[in-house]
Write a structure and sequence with these properties.
Elements: H1 28-41, E1 45-49, H2 52-55, H3 59-69, E2 73-75, E3 90-92, H4 100-107, E4 111-115, H5 126-129, E5 138-142
Parallel strand pairs: 1-2, 1-4, 2-3, 4-5
Length: about 150
């Protein structure tokens, strides 16, 4: 099939109406309250930050959030600039290319708030995301839509 000739006019076009965007129908206020309630009740909560906290333009909001929460923060391998290493809440980098501290903190969490991570192969370790490895851990994933030229952030 490689180098096969195609007629571009015969290809189906992109229709944004076909996108699966469940967040548009979700009650985000209620979901946010639920997450914050569970964060307050958690004994070992951890925030897992990825490159999306910068790509989304929400880095200042992210810093304000973690300061207010006061819980340990781990960063993905491509999010070294999300939180500086000497920040008092910084706990390391989890994943296959992470460090021991980051993996230990993440694996012992009873609540994992994942922000701006696409969960690539370098970050997804069996102990972090498999329900069988951490049966008592709650995981909430929040992936902001990146602000890119030519796209809307609405």
């Amino acid at each position: 099939m490689q180098a096969s000739k195609i007629d571009p006019d015969s290809l189906a076009g992109f229709d944004p109406a076909e996108l699966d965007e469940p967040w548009r129908a979700a009650n985000l206020d209620q979901i946010s309250r639920d997450i914050l309630d569970r964060l307050q009740k958690a004994e070992r909560p951890v925030v897992f930050a990825g490159g999306g906290v910068r790509l989304s333009g929400a880095h200042r909001d992210f810093l304000a959030l973690i300061e207010r929460l006061g819980v340990p923060v781990v960063t993905g391998w491509n999010a070294h600039d999300a939180l500086w290493n000497d920040h008092p809440l910084y706990a390391g980098r989890p994943g296959t290319v992470g460090d021991r501290g980051g993996n230990m903190v993440t694996q012992s969490a009873d609540l994992l708030l994942v922000l701006g991570i696409r969960r690539n192969i370098w970050l997804i370790t069996r102990a972090i995301y498999r329900q069988t490895a951490l049966p008592d851990t709650m995981r909430f994933t929040v992936t902001p839509r990146p602000k890119r030229p030519g796209t809307s952030s609405k």
